[in-house]
Amino acid sequence: MSRHLEVREVLRRITASARRLLGAEYAALGVPDDHGGFAQFVVDGVTDEQWRAIGPLPRQHGVLAAMLHETGPIRLDDVRRAPAFGGWPEAHPQLGAFLGMPIVDADADEDRDEDEDGPEVLGVIYLANKRGGGGFTDHDEELLRILAAHAALALTNARLYERSRELTLAGERARIAHDLHDAVSQKLFSLRLTAKAAAKLVDRDPARARAELAEVARLAAEAADELRAVVVELRPAALEEDGLSATLASQVQVLDRAHTADIAFAADRVRALPQAQEAALLRVAQEALHNALRHSGAGRVTVTLAGTPERGALLRISDNGRGFDPGAVRRAGRHLGLASMRDRAAAVGGRLTLDSAPGTGTIVEMEVPGA
Question: What is the pTM of this model?
Answer without folding.
Answer: 0.48
